[in-house]
Write a structure and sequence with these properties.
By secondary structure, the chain is of the alpha/beta class. The chain is built from six helices and six strands. Strands 1, 2, 3, 4, 5 and 6 form a six-stranded mixed β-sheet that branches. A hairpin with a 2-residue loop joins strand 2 and strand 3.
């Protein structure tokens, strides 16, 4: 599974113009709903479920990145949004540092294997210092798409 298989170009927000965690999550969920991933009237329920998950434990896992995620019956297909913040977001990350890059993943409740594969793909890329650096430096959605395509191509040649 490639990043470009599930990251929706129309749900890439660069730069993020909101700085609070909850507002970032709400915005990215809204973008995915607008892209047809879930009904627009499900936005509130999806946002609520993701925020409830954040209260249990932050998905800001350090190194300036966060991966909020949800499996929900209203989600039609696996999809992710990406947001990049210039100033950083307090995500209550494990390392207490601000988050600059957010991947928000939504998947159908009945497809846990796909969800897991997508999470593994996202995490393997976010573990890469070069990927994180270029993602944080992206100033347009097109630059993010280029980075995702480059990452997918490298995985095909090295994997």
């Amino acid at each position: 599974m490639k990043l470009t298989d599930f990251v929706k170009a129309e749900a890439i927000v660069v730069p993020l113009d909101v700085a609070e965690r909850d507002a970032v999550i709400e915005l990215l969920v809204e973008k995915l709903c607008a892209a047809g991933v879930a009904p627009k009237n499900a936005k509130g329920a999806l946002t609520e479920q993701i925020l409830a998950r954040e209260k249990q434990g932050s998905t800001g896992f350090g190194r300036g990145v966060a991966v909020p995620h949800v499996k929900h019956e209203k989600v039609k297909k696996l999809a992710a949004a990406v947001g990049v913040s210039e100033g950083g977001i307090d995500f209550n990350a494990l390392d207490k540092a601000p988050v600059y890059s957010v991947f928000l993943l939504m998947s159908p409740k009945d497809e846990p294997d796909q969800h897991l594969q997508a999470m593994e793909n996202i995490f393997s890329n976010l573990q890469n210092d070069r990927f994180r650096k270029f993602l944080r430096q992206a100033s347009t959605p097109e630059e993010v798409v280029d980075l995702l395509e480059e990452s997918d191509a490298q995985k095909l040649t090295s994997g």
